[in-house]
Write a structure and sequence with these properties.
With 115 residues, the protein is mostly beta strands. It is built from no helices and eleven strands.
C-alpha cells in the first residue's frame, strides 16, 4: 500500500522560508508528475507547483520566483522550497503523485505565515 508522508510545515514570519518534503512509501513502479497543492478553509484545493518526471517545473503566478519544486526520483520524494513567504501563503499544503494507475495524496501539512 502506497502512502505519501509530508513534513516541514509550521509557523513562520512573513519573509521567512520553509521547506516541505513528501516521501512515498510502498511500491510505486512509475511516478509521472509530482505536485503541491494548497487549500484554505472554505475554498477549493489549488495547484501551486508541478514537476514532471523529466524535471520540468511549472508554478502558479503567485509563487513564481519565490517557490521552487524539486524531486528525487530515486527516493520517490518531492520538495517545495518556499522563500519570501507572505501571509496569503497560509494554507494546508498537500502533495500529489501520479502513478501508472492512479494518483496519491499526502495527508496535508499546515503552513502558517504571520504578518
Amino acid at each position: 500500500q502506497v502512502q505519501l508522508v509530508e513534513s516541514g510545515g509550521g509557523l513562520v514570519q512573513a519573509g521567512g522560508s520553509l521547506r516541505l518534503s513528501c516521501a512515498a512509501s510502498g511500491t510505486i513502479f512509475w511516478i509521472n508528475n509530482m505536485s503541491w497543492y494548497r487549500q484554505v478553509p472554505g475554498k477549493q484545493r489549488d495547484l501551486v507547483a508541478v514537476i514532471t518526471n523529466s524535471g520540468v517545473a511549472n508554478y502558479v503566478d503567485s509563487v513564481k520566483g519565490r517557490f521552487t519544486i524539486s524531486r528525487d526520483n530515486a527516493k520517490n520524494t518531492v520538495y517545495l522550497q518556499m522563500n519570501s513567504l507572505k501571509a496569503e501563503d497560509t494554507a494546508v499544503y498537500y502533495c500529489n503523485m501520479i502513478g501508472t494507475r492512479r494518483d496519491y495524496w499526502g495527508q496535508g501539512t499546515q503552513v502558517t505565515v504571520s504578518s
